[in-house]
Design a protein that fits this description.
It holds the Pfam family HTH_20. By secondary structure, this protein is mostly helical. It has a domain at 12-128: Arc Repressor Mutant, subunit A (Orthogonal Bundle), CATH 1.10.10.10. The protein contains 7 helices and 5 strands. Strands 2-4-3 form a 3-stranded antiparallel β-sheet. The protein starts with 11 loop residues before the first strand and ends in a 23-residue tail after the last helix.
Length: 197
């Protein structure tokens, strides 16, 4: 059964304007939306505890995310009028960089967001290394960090991207909800042409 506190399956927001991209291009806001998407709804106090940020800082960042439609209140979870719960409004965020190449303001906002996302991946991967000693060996063995390269035509490049998207979509659909014997498993893929190659 789907958790009513989580965004609907396959719900997404596609960004076109620089304002929301700039709003999301902040490490704390990106982390907050990630927590709400993966762990479900939370109060500002709960988010402050998870991130180590002050409640005032988290409240400011949550308000900014709400202003741009990334999060929304979940009033049905409040135990009284003072308690405010927040949830992610969408399961994923996407944007098409090619769409912004001829617009300097939108391209700068897109680049800032992409840099923040890549920096968050780096921090998360380093945190995995730090936590590895506490994991059971059978959960470490299937882990993988690798890279590769191949000389591809444009069509083959598109096919590779589509193949990886299909793998991602298969496992995302299968593992959306927690179940007995499961653990949250993360994956990150990057496919890009080498410049000058």
């Amino acid at each position: 059964m789907t958790d009513p506190g989580r965004p609907p399956a396959d719900s997404s927001v596609h960004l076109h304007d620089p304002g929301p991209m700039r709003a999301m291009a902040h490490p704390t806001r990106l982390r907050l939306i990630g927590i709400l998407r993966m762990d479900g709804p939370a109060t500002v106090g709960m988010l402050a505890e998870q991130t180590g940020e002050s409640a005032g800082s988290v409240s400011y960042h949550v308000s900014t995310l709400a202003k741009h439609g990334f999060v929304e209140e979940a009033p049905e979870l409040a135990r009284d009028r003072r308690e405010r719960w927040w949830r992610a409004a969408h399961e994923m965020t996407s944007w098409d960089t090619v769409e912004f190449l001829d617009d300097p303001a939108r391209h700068a906002a897109s680049e800032a967001l992409r840099r923040t996302v890549l920096e968050s991946y780096h921090r998360e991967l380093l945190a995995v290394l730090d936590a590895e000693a506490q994991l059971e060996p059978e959960w470490i063995a299937p882990s993988d960090s690798s890279d590769g390269a191949a000389h591809l035509t444009l069509e083959e490049f598109r096919e590779l991207s589509a193949d990886l998207a299909a793998v991602r979509d298969k496992w995302w659909a299968r593992g959306r909800e927690p179940a007995e014997g499961t653990r949250l498993v993360r994956w990150m893929t990057h496919v890009f042409p080498r410049s000058g190659a």
